Structure formats: structure tokens, C-alpha cells
Amino acid sequence: MSGQRSDRITPLQQVVSSCSGAILTSLFVTPLDVVKIRLQVQKHPFPKGKCFVYCNGLMDHICVCVNGNSRAWYKAPGQFTGTLDAFVQIVRREGVMSLWSGLPPTLVMAVPATVIYFTCYDQLCTALRARMGDHAQEAPLLAGATARVGAATVISPLELIRTKMQSQKLTYRELTDCIRSAVDMGGWRSLWRGLGPTLLRDVPFSAMYWYNYENGKSWLCNWYNTREPTLAITFTAGAVSGSIAAITTLPFDVVKTRRQVELGELQAMNLSHQASSTFSVMRRIVAQDGFQGLFAGFLPRLIKVAPACAIMISTYEIGKTFFRKRNQERNGCRTKL
Fold first, then answer.
1. Within 13 A of 157's CA, how many CA atoms are on the CB side?
2. What digits encode the pLDDT tens for the residues 79-99?
3. Torsion of CA 264, 158, 18, 25, to 10 degrees
4. 3-state secondary structure string, 6-62?
5. 2-26+104-336 maps to which CATH number?
6. How many Å apart are CA 79 and CA 211, to the nearest integer?
7. Which of 173, 184, 240, 290 is the most core-located residue (most Cβ within 10 A)?
């Protein structure tokens, strides 16, 4: 029993593993979304004060167009004929590092959110499996949903604050006054605007993702007759489970994007009146575009989410395996002494 306790990784080691995964995922996937935004801006220029959603596959962020010049990373000059041409032209005109424009605000929110999410999931899943007995197989479902609720709730006020900072050049004192006035007008709940549609998409996504991932990983381990999942196994299980969850929750993602943009524009204009409800947005989409409108952006979402989930979970599992072996070696040295 003592050996098992010392071999188990600590919460701090889980934090380091998840933090590494968040950074690596952002580094890999951010260029894809930078190119996508440049192409979108070229076809449909965003006017001043207009919002759009920047998504690196790990997290979504509201971005506000502050001006119309080419200095803003999402307002690159020139015309692109396609995705590959956009990559080439951006690198040629602005340098390779411009493909990672927008990475700092991504990391500021993605790293703490991912750390909270993955660490809470592992701790909850371990505790639930020990208590659920015959129903331990459903532990990832409940742990994934609960962990996502916690992470999204903690990070939601940061999203609002970052939107304010992007929409206006505010000093920290002005930002504090802005937040205080928002709280005075709408109460503390005003800092969590837009949390509802976020949870409607992310909670079922998380529940399905972890349930399918854990079962898929176990099935692949049995198929290849191995006790420890390899990099290929975790990568495949992460990509497949992420794809299934992304397709299933796509209608909520479309609604969330519409509501997020609407809320971002209200915040940018310092308007306090309430944005449309989640279900009113859904009804509007169905009325305008039919039910197929709820599945808009199917391919781009799949292309981003599948590799992001695969990279994130693979890095996380590699980190946990490294620390587990390190703990075993330490325990072995102590036993010999």
C-alpha cells in the first residue's frame, strides 16, 4: 500500500503535466486559427467595434476590432488565394512568428483553465472510482462534467475583463472602475455573463470526451495487449473521442458563438442591457437557416478540435507517466536505503 501511495502522482505533478499540454497545444494549433481569421477578415472585413471568436482548438476567445489599420494581428494587408497561400504570404511579409499572433492572451486564459480542468478531473475521477463500485466505469462521465463546470465558472470573469481590455485602451485603474460599475449595475453575477451557453456546450462535450477517451484507451490497450498506453494509443483515443464530442455538441457551439459575439459587442460598447437568451438564438438560427444552420462550421471545428484534443491528452499522459516512473524510482531508492 505504501508503494502504491508513493507511486501515485501528486496534484502539483498533475498541474505541471496539464500546463505543458496547454502550452504545446496552443503552439501547434494557434497558426491554424491565425490563418483562418485572416481569410475571414479578407472576405468579410470587420468594422470597428465588431467582435469575432478566436479559437485555437483549446479555448475560445472574444476579439474586438479596435481599428481598421494593418497593425492589428487579425487585419493583415493583402489578398490570399487559399490556406496554403495565406501561410506563405504571412511568413514572407511578416515573419514566421506572426503565425503565433494572439498567443499571449490564449496562454493567459488557456493555461489556468486547463490546469484547473485536468487536475480536478483526475482527482474527482480517482475519488469517484473508489466509491462507485460496480458503476466505476461511469466515473469519467461525471468527473469530466463536474471539472468543466468548475473550470468554466472560474475563468468566465477573466473572459469579460479581457474583452474590455481589447475593446478599449484602459489603464488598470480605469479597468477596475469599469468592473466596479458593472458590478454596481448588475451585481456580481454580471461578471459571469455568457456562462450559460458556454456550459451548455462544454459540459456535455467534456462528459462525452472523457467517457469515450477512457473506454477507447482501455479497448486499445487490450487490443495491443499492453498495460501502459503508448503515445499512439493516447493520441488515437484523444482524437477519436474529441471528434465524437465535437460533432455531437456542434449545435450548442454554433449558439454559443453567436451569443458570445453578441455579449462581446455589448461589453465593448459598455451597454448593460441583456443579450438574447440561448434558446432565442437557437430559434433565430433555425428560422433563418433551417436546422442545418445549427451544424454550421462542421469541418473547421472537427479539424481544430480533433488534433487539439489528441495533442493535449497525449502530452498530459506523457507527463503523468514521466512523474509516475520518477516516483517509482525514488521509492525504490528509499527502499534500498
1. 14
2. 777 778 888 888 888 888 888
3. 30
4. HHCCCHHHHHHHHHHHHHHHHHHHHHHHHHHHHHHHHHCCCCCCCEEEEECCCCEEE
5. 1.50.40
6. 44
7. 240
The total of other beta-carbon atoms located within 10 Å of residue 215's CB is 14
Q: Report d(CA 191, CA 265) in Å as an integer.
A: 15
Beta bridge partners of 64: 51
- Written as one letter, the residue type at 192 is W
Domain borders along the chain are 2-26+104-336
pLDDT tens per residue across span 267-302: 556 555 555 677 787 888 888 888 888 877 777 778
pLDDT at 68 over 70: no
Question: Among residues 235, 213, 233, 236, which one has the least CA distance to residue 221?
Answer: 233
pLDDT of 1 over the 70 cut: no
Residue that has been written with the C-alpha cell 516516483 in this structure: 327
Q: How far apart are CA 128 and CA 184, in angstroms?
A: 40
* DSSP state letters, 303-332: HHHHHHHHHHHHHHHHHHHHHHHHHHHHHH
CB-based contacts of 307, cutoff 8 Å, min separation 6: 28, 29, 57, 239
- The strand pairing partners of 51, in sequence order, are 64
* Largest pairwise CA distance in the chain: 73
Q: Identify the bridge partners of residue 55 per DSSP, sorted by sequence position.
A: 60
The C-alpha cell 496554403 sits at 84
According to the 3-state scheme, what is the secondary structure of 141-186? HHHHHHHHHHHHHHHHHHHHHHHHHHHCCCCHHHHHHHHHHHHHHH
Over residues 34-53, mean pLDDT = 63
The residue whose grid cell reads 487559399 is 82
Say if CB 41 and CB 86 are below 8 A apart.
no
* pLDDT at 100 (0 to 100): 81
How many of the other CB atoms lie within 10 Å of CB of 268?
21
Rounded Cα–Cα distance for residues 39 and 89 (Å): 12
The owner of cell 486547463 is 114
